[in-house]
Each structure stands twice: as structure tokens, then as C-alpha cells.
Amino acid sequence: MYKKNPRIMQGKIPVKWTAPEALENRIFTTKSDVWSFGVVLWELFTYGHSPYPDLHLGQSYDAIVTYLKEGNRMAQPDSCSDEFYELMLKCWFLDPDERPTPIDIVATLTPLDGPLHDDNGLNMPEDECKSKPIEENAIHLS
Q1: Sign for the pseudo-dihedral over CA of 136, 6, 39, 103
Q2: How would DSSP label each residue in 8-55?
Q3: At 72, phi and psi to the nearest 5?
Q4: Which domains, from first to last, does the chain contain?
Q5: Of 79, 72, 36, the residue nearest 54 (C-alpha)
Q6: Has UniProt tagged this entry with the keyword Nucleotide-binding (predicted)?
Q7: pLDDT surpassing 70 at residue 136
Q8: pLDDT tens digits, one per residue of 50-77
Q9: Given this model, what pLDDT does residue 141 score?
Q10: 27: β partners
Q11: Which of 5, 72, 81, 86 has the lowest CB atom count within 10 Å?
Q12: How far apart are the first and last CA of the chain?
């Protein structure tokens, strides 16, 4: 957990983009960020459609977490290749430890879409992309 500057969650949470464990425990990690990345990737392939169209924002966090724990995931967008959808599904593994790390995502995307870096400073040093244990990467919001 990020212990230096714990933040208290106030206001609304972007429920449809938030990983189930973050909805339940208010603990946010690089692995919950990976879940959110999968949702954003889905949005890109649907040209901006709202995620989880069968969920209603008025539902409780518990109802949404139950929905996700039952294995419900968004369908493959029509414009999405099998390879990209497979990445999305990996981002949405229920167990955060089974989700890819950011460096795993970069390694997956690089052969799918060409290099993800260039000489203009867009490359990220590998050591900054490596995932740390969840307790070291978490922000606990209570």
C-alpha cells in the first residue's frame, strides 16, 4: 500500500472502470489499474460505447461485484481482433495476481501494433514498468 500519503475516498467512484477488489476494499494497485486499462481498451474498440451496458449505475457496489464474480464480462467488440480481446480478458481476471503486469501488456501490444516507443522519449524504462507486490503498490482509501 502507498503508506506515505493515504487518501480518503470522497465522492463518486468510476464503478464500471474499477476492479472488483477495489470496489470491495478501497485498495487500488497496479493490478486494479490493469483492470481499468482493459475497460478503456474495450471502449476504444467500441468507439466510445459505455462499458457494461447491461449494468445500471444505480446498482450497489455489492451487486456489481457479485455480477463480476459470477464471471460476467463484456463481449468482444465487432472491430476487435481475437488477440486484443484475449488481452482484455486477461486484464479482467478476478484474481489480481493473475492479471498481466504493465510490462506484460507492453510486451503483448508491441508485436500486435508495432513498437510502442520511439526516439521522442515515449519509451518507459523497464524497471519502472515492473509490478511490485500488491501491498507495495496499493493505495488504501478508508
Answers
A1: negative
A2: ---S---GGGS-HHHHHH-EE-HHHHHHHHHHHHHHHHTTSPPSSTTS
A3: -70, 130
A4: 15-140 (1.10.510.10)
A5: 72
A6: no
A7: no
A8: 999 888 767 777 888 999 999 999 999 9
A9: 52
A10: 140
A11: 5
A12: 12
Confidence of residue 13 (pLDDT cuts 50, 70, 90): confident
Determine the Cα–Cα distance for residues 81 and 120; give it in Å rounded to an integer.
29
> 85-113: per-residue pLDDT in tens?
999 999 999 999 999 999 999 999 887 65
Query: Cell 526516439 appears where?
Result: 119
55: left (phi over 0), alpha (psi -120 to 50) or beta: beta
Residue with cell 449494468: 55
Helix (H) / strand (E) containing 140: strand 139-140
Q: What is the spatial distance between Cα 36 and Cα 17, in angstroms, rounded to a whole number? A: 5
- To which residue does cell 493505495 refer? 139
Spatial distance between the Cα atoms of 3 and 7, rounded to a whole number of angstroms: 9
Q: What is the pTM of this model?
A: 0.73
Grid cell, residue 91, equals 486484464
